[in-house]
Write a structure and sequence with these properties.
Elements lengths: L6 E3 L2 E4 L3 H6 L1 E2 L2 E2 L9 E3 L14 E4 L5 E11 L2 E11 L2 E3 L1 H6 L45 E3 L2 E12 L9 E15 L28 E9 L1
Antiparallel strand pairs: 1-6, 2-5, 3-4, 7-8, 8-11, 9-10, 11-12, 12-13
């Protein structure tokens, strides 16, 4: 009853703000995350067995959109004309594997600037856990829902504005000047370069593994008819 390639991930519940919170997170006196400290991620024990493993994964969403849309508009007024195209997806999820790789502060590479907002006792509202070399709590485990994002978007895909010059030259039936623009902007909450990540086989839909962004194009053209 679930979609192919749906996301089954470990749910997270924020960051531990103190070692006392870590101690309180137990099952019959046994710590659920024994290697955790203040600033580490709290992973939810969904099946209440006192430990965190793959059995705690839950369904977190589909890579397939619930709704897709396309809208094409055209208008003319005297010698001017305009064409515009919009497209969009809604209700799908994207796993940002690019972010997961570039935020892995144990890998010894250059990291994303988002890792600057790491937890300290003075920065308890941080979006990134405390910095460690060996990650004893496995904060950066790829099977958590930390890097799953809303993939909905609306994009202005193309716009073309033209003007047809009146017949002022003998033998010239048509002369139209236009400017064409593609991929002007995308409205989305997704933090990656582009929400267009649905490539590959059915099991890898919704996986952003260093997907290159669409380029923005501006073109000036001239149509002449004799």
């Amino acid at each position: 009853g679930y979609p192919i390639g749906g996301f089954w991930l470990l749910p997270t519940d924020g960051l531990f703000q103190s070692d006392e919170e870590v101690q309180k997170y137990n099952k019959d006196g046994v710590l659920i995350l024994p290697n955790a400290k203040a600033g580490d991620i709290k992973f939810r024990d969904t099946n209440d067995d006192g430990k965190i493993n793959d059995d705690d994964r839950i369904y977190k969403g589909s890579p397939f959109p619930s709704f897709t849309m396309g809208l094409n508009l055209s208008a003319q007024w005297r010698g001017f004309d305009m064409m515009m195209g919009l497209q969009g997806n809604f209700g799908n999820k994207i796993y940002n594997a690019t972010k997961a790789f570039l935020e892995n502060t144990t890998s010894g590479i250059n990291y994303l600037a988002t890792t600057y907002d790491y937890w300290t006792p003075q920065n308890t509202d941080a979006t990134y856990p405390r910095l460690t070399w060996n990650d004893p709590n496995r904060n950066l485990r790829p099977e958590s829902d930390r890097n799953l994002e809303d993939g909905s978007y609306v994009r202005l895909r193309n716009v073309q504005i033209g003007y047809t010059v009146p017949k002022i030259i003998k033998g010239l039936n048509k002369c139209r000047i236009y400017i064409s623009m593609e991929n002007l902007f995308t409205i989305t909450k997704y933090s990656g370069y582009t929400p267009d990540v649905n490539t590959g086989n059915s099991m890898s839909r919704g996986m952003d593994n260093f997907t290159y962004p669409l380029y923005r194009t501006f073109m000036l053209g001239l149509n002449v008819g004799i």
